[in-house]
Amino acid sequence: MTNYLKRANELAIANIEEGGQPFGAVLVKEGVVIGEGVNEMHIAYDVSGHAEMIAIRRAQQRLQTDDLRGARMYASGEPCPMCYAAMAFVGIEDVVYSASVEEAAASGLMRSQEIYEDLKKIRTERVLIQSYQQKIGGLSPLQVWKNK
Question: Is 52 a catalytic residue?
Answer without folding.
Answer: yes
